[in-house]
Amino acid sequence: MLVLLQIGNLIVLAPKQPQAPQLIDRMATIMENENVGLTDLLSGLEAEREAIGQDKQS
Questions:
Q1: Is the pTM of this model over 0.70?
Q2: CB contact at 8 A, 4 and 11
Q3: Total of domains in the chain
Q4: Is residue 10 part of a domain?
Q5: Is the pLDDT of residue 29 over 80?
């Protein structure tokens, strides 16, 4: 995969670096530092979905 950048009249092609592995590592570090487990994340996700659903109904 490549990224196409236009800078003025110049076009640059650069390799695109996958972000998923870096994001996963960052999330794992944050979860470990905050002592948050997968169950906590999933229950928080359900609460956020409910809040969004209530906002859409308003």
A1: no
A2: yes
A3: 1
A4: no
A5: yes
d(CA 41, CA 47): 10
| Tokens 């969004």 belong to residue | 52
Print the domain residue range for 46.
18-57
Residue in the structure block whose two tokens are 């800078």: 7
Q: How far apart are CA 39 and CA 53, in angstroms?
A: 21
SS3 for 58?
coil
**Got the DSSP string for 6-37?**
EETTEEEEEEPPP-HHHHHHHHHHHHHHHT--
Q: Which amino acid is at 22?
A: Q
- Confidence category of residue 17, pLDDT binned at 50, 70, 90: confident
**CA neighbor of 13 nearest in space, from 22, 4, 23:** 4
Determine, yes or no, domain membership for 37: yes
